[in-house]
Amino acid sequence: MAETKHIIVVGAHGRIGSALVRRYSANPDYQVTGIGRDSLDLSNPASIDHALAGLDFDLLINAAALTNVDYCEQHPGEAQSANCSGPKQLAEICAERGARMIHISTDYVFGGDTPGMRSEDDATAPTGVYGQSKLDGEHAVLEVLGTAGLVVRTSWVFGPDRPSFPDMILQRAQENDVLEAIGDKWSCPCYSEDFAEYLELLFQQKDAHGVFHLCNSGACSWSEYAQQVVDIATDLGIALRCHSVTPTKLADMDRFVAPRPVHTAMATVKFHAATGCAPRDWQSALRDYLTAKVSD
Ligand SMILES: NC(=O)C1=CN([C@@H]2O[C@H](COP(=O)(O)OP(=O)(O)OC[C@H]3O[C@@H](n4cnc5c(N)ncnc54)[C@H](OP(=O)(O)O)[C@@H]3O)[C@@H](O)[C@H]2O)C=CC1
Ligand SMILES: Cc1cn([C@H]2C[C@H](O)[C@@H](COP(=O)(O)OP(=O)(O)O[C@H]3O[C@@H](C)C(=O)[C@@H](O)[C@H]3O)O2)c(=O)[nH]c1=O
């Protein structure tokens, strides 16, 4: 594979896409073109062709997806086109141009029946439309691109560009005397800024291809994640009304439309072996995120 110089980021205004564009644009070795939904709609084949026409690139990173898990459950056609057919078309264009493609995917491709850390070779069994459409997208991209394709699965992403779970918890802890979060579902939080840094190490490996897991290290339940937010916020001197998170049951989360997989924590051993980098623990990453958030 040739050295990466011109990078296209599709989904440039999302949580991960924004972090990728920010980091790689700051590197004079790269030319970066960020493309948002306004000019490339994954559900509209003509807009994909139009947005990429005339662009010369070595690497395309697809960070666009329909990520609202419950919305996907109720709109399976839209989920399939955004998360599978559109990415497949991106892969076909990359193949025509001789470019590599990184397709971002999710821990929700797993069924999550048993505890433990998932490896890239573990069996997949999505529990809902979102996970199934993402898995179909993985297969389509890798089938089209072979060794020029990378699928990078991440989980529980947080970062400065869009609010996510830690922001919701912090706000609730500031406004309420009681704070609850689901205590019987586990995965690995991932800081978007770390993800951008680590992903670069992966695409710098010219021969890397296939599926990789990439998130901060360590697993937790949603309630442990929430408690860590509260503990760090307290350390940082943020005034909270509630300092203790009460674990609740996933089964009692009435407003979830789509079933969520229970155990989807992912091992990053393969990433470590390929790059020599062991992702830092999620607690340090969360502390950095919240510290930056309060100093804004
Ligand atoms: N967030 C998380 O916790 C996790 C995310 N992932 C994966 O990471 C990747 C990035 O997710 P993240 O940045 O968090 O998600 P976001 O929802 O923050 O960003 C996704 C972007 O894709 C855009 N988009 C949605 N539908 C389309 C479409 N039809 N055509 C073009 N663009 C579209 C969105 O546009 P708009 O702004 O209009 O919504 C948004 O800008 C995805 O592949 C996701 O599956 C994996 C695991 C966990
Ligand atoms: C965990 C939890 C969530 N919520 C709310 C927050 C939010 O509005 C809604 C859904 O929460 P989340 O978005 O965190 O959960 P979910 O939609 O399951 O998030 C998923 O997103 C996709 C993109 C992925 O790929 C997964 O890795 C995962 O991060 O439920 C609670 O009110 N209490 C809770 O304890």
Automatic annotation (TrEMBL):
Limits of the RmlD-like substrate binding domain: 6-292
Annotated signal peptide: none
A Pfam family reported for this protein in Swiss-Prot or TrEMBL: RmlD_sub_bind
GO molecular function (one): dTDP-4-dehydrorhamnose reductase activity
Keyword NADP: yes
Keywords, alphabetical: NADP, Oxidoreductase
Biological process according to GO: dTDP-rhamnose biosynthetic process
Catalytic activity: dTDP-beta-L-rhamnose + NADP(+) = dTDP-4-dehydro-beta-L-rhamnose + NADPH + H(+)
Record-stated family: Belongs to the dTDP-4-dehydrorhamnose reductase family.
Designated name of the protein: dTDP-4-dehydrorhamnose reductase
Organism, as annotated: Sulfuriroseicoccus oceanibius
